[in-house]
Design brief:
Distance between the termini of chain B: 35 Å
Largest sheet of chain A: 12 strands, mixed
Strand order of the largest sheet of chain A: 1-4-3-2-6-5-7-8-9-10-11-12
Order of helices and strands of chain B: HEEEHEHEHHEHEHEHHEHHH
Shape of chain B: globular
Largest interface: A-B, 29 and 31 residues
Oligomer: heterodimer
Number of helices of chain B: 12
Structural class of chain B: alpha/beta
Number of helices of chain A: 11
Strand content of chain A: 15-25%
Strand content of chain B: 15-25%
Radius of gyration of chain B: 19 Å
Shape of chain A: globular
Largest sheet of chain B: 9 strands, mixed
Strand order of the largest sheet of chain B: 3-2-1-5-4-6-7-8-9
Structural class of chain A: alpha/beta
Number of strands of chain B: 9
Radius of gyration of chain A: 20 Å
């Protein structure tokens, strides 16, 4: 059995509400004409967060649970949505589905078995593909849900989106807390991936961001130690965006994992300000996400996409993969072809085609330097 | 970035010199012990030959053996180290007299084997903590071996702690980078003549240890083919939730791991603080109730005195406790019954309460 909470009603808190909040649900239902809604995305969720008891609008909070919980969040995206943006209500104001990304409904699943059935049915319905998104440091539960909804929408991913949400405190000051939460979540991510491999999914793709790449690499590493590095042949694309992993540690993880059948994609950017900070607190050692030596990484069996010359809508330059309209659609185009059918080597051609097709503003201009285990390509495209 | 008291951490001596330049000769009568410490390390060879290995990370393991003498004047629990200006006098100080490097693991194993065979088939692997130079670790293991009277072969696993030059997160990353090499070292030892491999880990070294044991368990070899003996985790600098998840993955050990903790541990208070005010295992107040179900035996040293103000190294710097550690490790190779272990722990707790430690 499942518990369905359509809209949870709570007393509205008064106050200024300028501090970052992590609200996901509205306190009252806000309706909007169907014509104002671009799409509804059903986001499946596996999380090591605690259910939010103090502030239930958050649904799950930054405390750790010893068990994985499972849920589904139905998110609407407004018609006026711009690619690369997440239109969110300001402060603690209710989300207006005509203007904002809005969580319309949360479904909780009692246990892994019930979840597996539900997500399995969705996977079967949508083409046997799953996209697992693992968010980064300083993210509330809401942040992860909004981000995967935007990614699912803007990439046009042809499959089931699954958010793996670990217990980030959602505070800038919580770096080491978050790192420990990430460590505590490794086995849960591995279990979730195995659960998905149990469904009839043919291909399980992973996009991980920032500290989420650490959880992901750890889960893949221990799968490899177990002798199941490609999830019984179901592992598809692995995209590591702005990895917040020490370069030495990443190399060790890759050595333990072994050369991937299909190179993992690493998206990095020399102007990533968030990672500069991680790097400083870890003894002025480079992080993978702002590392200058792509060839040094590529030899471990990864393909490096250097986004240094692409713009970000955020001044930290830490989420270009999703907030640069050109890049997020480029990822969508890449993911459209299942990993098993994709060419072994990156080629420049489709990128140019896509660049002409988008017709975005100059802000989406992108020059990407691609370093594969075999060669280096430079691609200037996008925008005008 | 981190508070000064914390940066001062577990070790106090600088510079990180291990080998003296001009050794003063001392008569045999002034030396109370000469210990051959075997070393497997993920540190880089230092450009400064007196340091031997430094805080930089190496991609591969290096192997060595260091001979250290302990002076007659040594007091249990202490590490008598020379000050910068004093002479290299083995009659007064712990002195490393010789370092031998091994070209590869085969040569290393051969040397360890010969030693272990002569020492009853036992090896103790020591994994040091945060903010610990190579020299600090070598001297600490020497002191533990000396004061505990451990009869087997001492082996130091030294990961690339940056000592004072860098910081907490650098060390944490070095620890993560060293997991596979600790596992490799333990597996190497199982190929040798050791019947039994004990592990003593301190502070952040307990994290490296738990990680290595965890991945051995994932591989289906949690007991090192039955050779794993005692696992002693002293002042574990591990988040309580992370520790529980590690133990869950490892499974209940056949022989309970021994966790030594102290709620007046100032070093861990700071770790706990920077990790979002979450408890660390080594100063966790509810450990006895909350952790024992994972298959560990908790020994609370809160009442015991420490040799330094941080209360972070009681297991080694309290003269009674380090001897007790020796007693524990010297016990016969059979598994002690739960009742015996329980009795001994009660005895320790009584002694602590009575102010004997």
């Amino acid at each position: 059995m499942k518990t369905t909470i359509a809209i949870i009603l709570f007393a509205l808190l008064t106050g200024c509400g300028t501090a970052p909040t992590h609200d996901l649900l509205n306190t009252v239902a806000v309706d909007a004409p169907a014509a104002d809604i671009a799409a509804t995305h059903e986001i499946f969720v596996a999380t090591t967060r605690q259910r939010a008891e103090k502030d239930r609008r958050q649904v799950f909070d930054g405390d750790r649970s010893p068990e994985t919980s499972f849920a589904r969040v139905d998110m609407t995206v407004p018609k006026l949505h711009e690619v690369g943006k997440i239109e969110r209500a300001k402060g603690r104001a209710p989300s207006d589905p005509a203007k904002d990304f809005t969580a319309r409904r949360v479904t909780f699943y009692r246990d892994a078995g019930v979840f597996e059935k539900a997500v399995g049915a969705d996977i079967a319905k949508r083409g046997d593909r799953v996209l697992v998104f693992v968010h980064g440091f300083n993210n509330g539960f809401d942040d992860g849900v909004y981000r995967i909804a935007q990614i699912a929408h803007d990439t046009g991913y042809p499959g089931t989106p699954v958010l793996f949400s670990w217990a980030s405190a959602g505070k800038v000051t919580g770096y080491v807390y978050d790192k420990e939460s990430a460590n505590a979540a490794r086995d849960d991510l591995e279990e979730t991936l195995k659960l998905l491999a149990n469904t009839r999914a043919k291909s399980i793709d992973i996009i991980a961001h920032s500290m989420g790449t650490w959880v992901t690499m750890e889960a893949l590493r221990q799968l490899a130690i177990e002798g199941n590095r490609d999830l019984g042949g179901k592992l598809g694309y692995v995209v590591l965006a702005s990895p917040d992993i020490d370069v030495d540690v990443f190399k060790k993880q890759m050595i333990r994992y072994g050369r991937p059948g299909k190179p993992f994609g690493i998206l990095l950017s020399g102007d990533d300000r968030a990672l500069k900070l991680s790097s400083i607190i870890s003894g002025s050692k480079p992080r993978v996400g702002d590392y200058g030596d792509a060839a040094d990484l590529a030899q471990y069996g990864v393909t490096v996409f250097d986004l240094s010359n692409s713009k970000s809508s955020d001044r930290l330059n830490h989420a270009k993969f999703a907030d640069n309209p050109f890049l997020v659609q480029l990822i969508g185009e890449r993911l459209a072809v299942p990993a098993g059918l994709a060419p072994a080597e990156v080629d420049a051609e489709p990128i140019d085609t896509l660049g002409r097709g988008i017709g975005q503003t100059v802000d989406s201009m992108a020059e990407i330097v691609v370093t594969t285990p075999l060669r280096v390509l430079k691609i200037a495209t996008g925008g005008e | 970035m981190l508070p000064a008291a914390f940066a001062a951490g577990c070790a106090g001596h600088r510079p990180e010199e291990l080998l003296g330049s001009a050794m003063v000769t001392a008569s045999v009568g002034d030396i109370s012990g000469n210990h051959g410490i075997f070393v497997a390390t993920t540190r880089k060879r230092s450009d400064d030959p007196s340091k031997v290995f430094d805080g930089e990370r190496s991609a591969t393991l290096s192997f060595a053996r260091v001979n250290v003498t302990v002076p007659k004047s040594h007091e249990a629990g202490k590490i008598e180290r020379k000050r910068r200006v004093s002479s290299n006098d083995p009659s007064k100080y712990f002195m490393a007299s010789e370092v031998a490097g091994y070209g590869d693991e085969t040569k290393f194993l051969l040397a360890v084997n010969a030693d272990t065979a002569a020492r009853g088939g036992r090896v103790m692997v020591f994994v040091h903590g945060y903010n610990t130079g190579f020299d600090d670790a070598v001297y600490r293991l020497t002191q533990i071996v000396h004061d505990s009277g451990y009869p087997g072969t001492p082996l130091l696993f030294s990961w690339a702690s940056g000592a004072s030059t860098t910081g907490y997160v650098y060390d944490k990353e070095s620890a993560a980078a060293a997991r596979d090499q600790l596992e490799e070292t333990l597996r190497l030892l199982t190929r040798g003549s050791a019947r039994r491999i004990d592990i003593v880990a301190h502070s952040m070294g307990t994290w490296v240890t738990m990680e290595a044991l965890r991945q051995l368990a994932i591989k289906g070899n949690p007991t090192l083919g039955g050779k794993l003996g005692d696992v002693v985790l002293a002042s574990p600098d591990i988040d309580v939730d992370v520790f529980k998840s590690q133990m869950q993955r490892y499974g209940k050990p056949a022989k309970p791991f021994i966790v030594l903790l102290s709620d007046d541990d100032r070093a861990l208070r700071l770790s706990g603080l920077i990790a979002g005010s979450q408890p660390r295992v080594g100063d966790y107040k509810d450990a006895a109730q909350d952790l024992t179900r994972y298959g560990v035996t908790v020994v609370d040293l809160s009442g015991a005195k420490a040799g330094d103000s941080l209360n972070h190294t009681k297991f080694a710097d309290n003269p009674e406790l380090v001897k007790l550690l020796g007693t524990r490790l010297r016990e016969d190779d059979g598994y002690a019954s739960d009742r015996e272990v329980g009795d001994r722990i009660d005895a320790i707790n009584r002694q602590i309460k009575a102010g004997l430690m």
